[in-house]
Amino acid sequence: MYRKALSLILFGSFLFTACTGNSTAAETSEAESAAEASEVPSLEVYGDSSMTPNDALEVGDLLAYMEGKDSVNVKLRGVINACCQKKGCWMDMDLSEDQSMTVRFKDYGFFVPMNSAGRTAVIEGVAKVDTQGVDWLRHKAEDAGRSEEEIAAITEPIVSVTFMADGVILE
Question: Which of 77, 135, 139, 167 could form a disulfide with 48 if both were Cys (CB 3.0 to 4.6 A apart)?
Answer without folding.
Answer: 167
